[in-house]
Design goal:
1 helix; about 20% strand
Amino acid sequence: MSKDLCLRLTIHKQTDLWNVLTEHCQRAYTLLSTLEGKQQIAATHIEHSQAQQKEWHDNKLPSVINKFKIRNKVFLHRTKAEKQWSGKFENKWNKSFFIHEVLGNGSYKLRLDDKILAKVVHEDRLKHYHSRSNPEPLIPQIGTHSPLVSPEDIP
């Protein structure tokens, strides 16, 4: 092979390489120039999607989130007792606690006398404590209701 032919081949290869590089640079430039507009479009789509997701999530939440207030008396559910069959007929609720702090989203800190529980409890594990003001059973007294049959009608 002559020197002239080798020189022409290398120049030809270099010009092909140069053309490929310039095409890649032009493609990169066009992509970068349109990138900002596409980023703005994507940001608006993300904001719209997040707003829809928030609305869907808020609609799923119950209307009353924090149904207990500070100093309310509540029972705490013993979730361990649900999985044990040995204490089948035992009470599933712990002794009464007081709401010490409302943390939001249905979470509470509880207090028993002067001791504050370290763990946070969700309202799903709590129920209101209703103290009995009258521990006697409410049985109606005889003669308090209007009788269907008068005593005179009985033979």
